UniProtKB/TrEMBL annotation:
Pfam families linked to this entry: Competence, DUF4131
Transmembrane residue ranges: 21-37, 43-61, 270-293, 305-323, 329-347, 356-374, 380-397, 409-430, 442-468, 480-498, 504-525, 532-550
Cellular component per GO, a single term: plasma membrane
Record domain ComEC/Rec2-related protein: where: 246-528
InterPro entries cross-referenced by the UniProt entry: ComEC_N (IPR004477), Competence_DNA_uptake (IPR052159), DUF4131 (IPR025405)
Keyword list, A-Z: Cell membrane, Membrane, Transmembrane, Transmembrane helix
Domain DUF4131: 41-185
Main location: membrane
Protein name: Competence protein ComEC
Taxonomy, superkingdom: Bacteria
Subcellular location: Cell membrane
């Protein structure tokens, strides 16, 4: 044992220059630790860990194990404390009106949406803050501290923008519960995103007189939307929507079929402003400024052209990040760019992996919940894999470059593009599987052409068009940009129609994704041979969706839909207000097409039999020695009592309606049970029938709404606040 500890200490000493890279990893583990309990954990554990870490660092600073244990405990505690603080700073989820209501609110943003029918005009969705409801119950109440996103009527032609106040009659809806335990939690996303819910307008919106407070944020938002509108005049449809995405970060108007093609072909990252786009912008600015200064003899001899160029590039990158909405991947890239520019200006080496660690630390401490989202996971996994990969491949690529002939340069360029796509795509593949339920096997081929077109054609033309807008000469540059966008759309559509371009994958358990990402960190953050040990957890995490046990039956959150796993299909029956969303989510989770559940006869496997014993809308699912009775259709709202002989020998009774007096003595899941407990999953094994509700999975945390999606009632303003 002592020899093993000595060997480990020796390995850590040889890797001492890489040890700081693990600090954000342990901060992330502290954040994840906070989200695991089923009840709200006390903050004293984090405070106690911080207090204990300080003496460990002081007394053990001269020994590696003292420094390491103190830093690990401190990072875990800081991550836990940051997550607790962000959670408790968030305002409570409000109780929204259950019926149509007149409301007024301050416009934060306006998103253009694709047309529901081809050839029809697109819609608009507004994000409103400081919302007030015009009801007798809400009179004198404080405005909402969270935002509402409302889709306007497609025929609403009112002209307005960020900073205006609107009055709308709308039907509102709180964030829904997960469609099954362990599925995507929209309530948690809305909680940390400071959203109260969504809605749709029932009438035309009107401007509120003397309303609207113009701030720097609303001015910037108006500028973004003005640029997007001028782009749409020259490039209508998806061309203009994609151009607006790249230049100002507004992607709502992209047609669903084009967005789908980008997703299937592995080009979705081009529609998410991130490091690629920021690198292109900064590279163009740096190149232009440096060559411009170098072309003037006086400045080339007297000024530090390189330093001036990189500072201008950083300023250009900051403007670009502001103009595109300050999305998380872009912010991460901007923090890294700041560190690189600082290193170049001061004459030091630009350690990219350390810059990535600093960016991760800043984002995790300022907004810890980002670790649960797709942008953070995909962004950091891709960049970490790229940095580590090129650290290893730097020497082989230099040899491939050779004397630098034209053919060698072209070969290196193509090889670099392929390696970039392969490294980033492989590192983010399990993340894509976990969040989107699919694999895109041809992403390398698509990126080989699409990335150079974006970097050398589309983005330069688009940036030039933005610069020419003040003098109204942007049309020709936007036309050139549109040709490039058309080429990328054509490429995405072609690759998306290749055989096996999309492979559906079942739901990935959270621990499987976490295991893969930890293995990726182990592989990328160390520099010696023992880094290869990280491949083992990566493989296990990658394979977990294919060996993860999926439920046999799922009852959706409102009890209206019942889904049964049957072979390579998902049989579904019932009615639900959110049926379209629940069907899509379950189809992705099970990686099976949805087929209507037959109300008469039996399935090919013989496991499911429906319509026997003259019981309409009743099915029996038998697997092994256990049986589940399913009441998948009931027009009497449970008033029609099932005969006792139908319930005999059943291990569980599941009904889309209230069970009432049916099947007494049999464990029951009906509409009332689902209303209290959320969605329920049922597993039928040799040892028995096991059920798991969303309430058992999610617990009683601040972001979990009360049954029926009820929030906290709004409170009236204090007298001093009314003034």
């Amino acid at each position: 044992m002592k020899g093993a500890l000595t060997r480990l200490q020796t390995l850590l000493l040889t890797e001492r220059h890489r040890l700081p890279l693990w600090l954000p990893v342990f901060i992330a583990l502290g954040v994840l630790t906070y989200f695991q309990p089923l009840t709200e954990p006390a903050v004293w554990w984090a405070l106690g860990g911080c207090l204990l870490a300080i003496p460990l660092l002081i007394m053990g600073w001269h020994r590696l194990e003292g420094r390491a244990s103190g830093c690990v405990l401190l990072c875990l505690s800081l991550g836990f404390l940051a997550a607790w603080s962000e959670n408790h700073r968030a305002p409570p989820m409000p109780e929204l009106p259950r019926r149509a209501v007149m409301l007024t609110g301050h416009v934060q943003a306006v998103d253009m949406l694709p047309a529901r029918v081809e050839g029809a005009p697109g819609g608009r969705r507004v994000t409103l803050s400081h919302v007030r409801f015009e009801t007798w119950l809400d009179e004198g109440m404080a405005p909402l501290k969270r935002t509402l996103r409302i889709r306007l009527r497609d025929d609403d032609s009112l002209v307005f923008g960020p900073g205006n106040d609107l009055r709308i009659r709308a039907l509102l809806e709180a964030p829904p519960f997960p469609v099954m335990p362990g599925a995507r939690d929209l309530q948690r996303e809305a909680w940390f995103g400071r959203e109260a819910g969504t809605g749709r307008a029932l009438g035309a919106a009107t401007l509120v007189e003397d309303g609207g407070k113009v701030t720097a944020t609303t001015t910037l938002e108006r500028l973004r939307e003005t640029i997007a509108a001028r782009i749409a005049v020259v490039l209508p449809g998806s061309d203009g929507a994609i151009a607006s995405t790249l230049l100002v970060g507004l992607s709502g108007g992209i047609a669903p079929k084009d967005r789908e093609a980008f997703s299937v072909s592995g080009l979705s990252h081009l529609l998410a402003v991130a490091g690629l786009h920021l690198g292109i912008v900064m590279g163009l600015v740096v190149t232009t400024v440096r060559y411009g200064l170098a072309s003037i003899e006086w400045t080339a001899l007297r000024w530090p052209c390189k330093e001036i160029a990189v500072i201008c590039g950083l300023l250009g990158g900051m403007v670009y990040v502001l103009m595109t909405g300050m999305h998380l991947p872009a912010l991460r890239s901007l923090i890294m760019a700041c560190l690189v520019v600082l290193a170049l200006v001061t004459g030091r080496n630009a350690a990219s992996m350390r810059g990535l660690a600093v960016a991760a630390t800043v984002l995790l401490l300022t907004g810890p919940a980002v670790i649960l989202g797709v942008p953070f996971q995909m962004s950091f996994a891709a960049v970490m894999a790229l940095i580590a990969g090129y650290e290893v491949l730097r020497v082989p690529l230099r040899r491939l470059h050779g004397e630098g002939t034209v053919s060698r340069r072209f070969l290196v360029h193509v090889t670099t593009l392929a390696l970039t796509s392969l490294l980033a795509g492989t590192a983010t593949l399990p993340v894509s599987m976990a969040h989107f339920g699919e694999i895109q096997p041809f992403f390398v081929v698509a990126n080989l052409l699409a990335v150079p077109m974006t970097a050398l054609w589309v983005m330069p033309a688009g940036l030039l068009a933005v610069l020419l807008m003040p003098v109204h000469l942007e049309r020709w540059a936007l036309d050139v940009m549109g040709w490039g966008v058309d080429g990328i759309i054509w490429l995405a559509d072609m690759v998306a129609h290749w055989p096996a371009a999309r492979i559906a994958v079942p739901m990935t358990p959270g621990w499987g994704l976490a295991l893969f990402l930890f293995g990726l960190c182990w592989l990328c953050l160390w520099s010696r041979t023992w880094r290869l040990l990280g491949i083992a957890p990566m493989l296990v995490g990658f394979l977990t969706p294919f060996f993860h046990s999926l439920p046999d039956v799922v009852i959706t959150p409102d009890g209206g839909l019942i889904a049964v796993r049957e072979g390579d299909q998902l049989l579904m029956s019932g009615q639900s207000r959110d049926a379209w969303f629940e069907r899509r989510a379950l189809e992705q989770a099970f990686a099976r097409p949805i087929v209507s559940l037959p109300l008469h006869g039996e399935t090919a496997s013989g496991d499911l039999t429906c319509g026997e014993d003259e019981a309409a809308g009743v099915c029996v699912l038998t697997r092994g020695k256990h049986s589940v009775l399913l009441r998948v259709e009931d027009t009497t709202d449970g008033q029609s009592i099932l005969p006792s002989e139908v319930c005999q020998g059943m291990d569980l009774f599941v009904a889309v309606s209230p069970a009432r007096s049916s099947c007494r003595g049999v464990p029951t899941i009906d509409r009332f049970a689902v209303w209290r407990e959320g969605a329920v999953a049922v597993w039928m094994t040799d040892s028995g029938v096991r059920t798991l509700s969303d309430r058992q999975w999610s617990g009683d945390r601040l972001w979990v709404m009360r049954p029926g999606r009820h929030g906290v009632p709004n409170l009236p303003l204090a007298k001093e606040d009314e003034r």
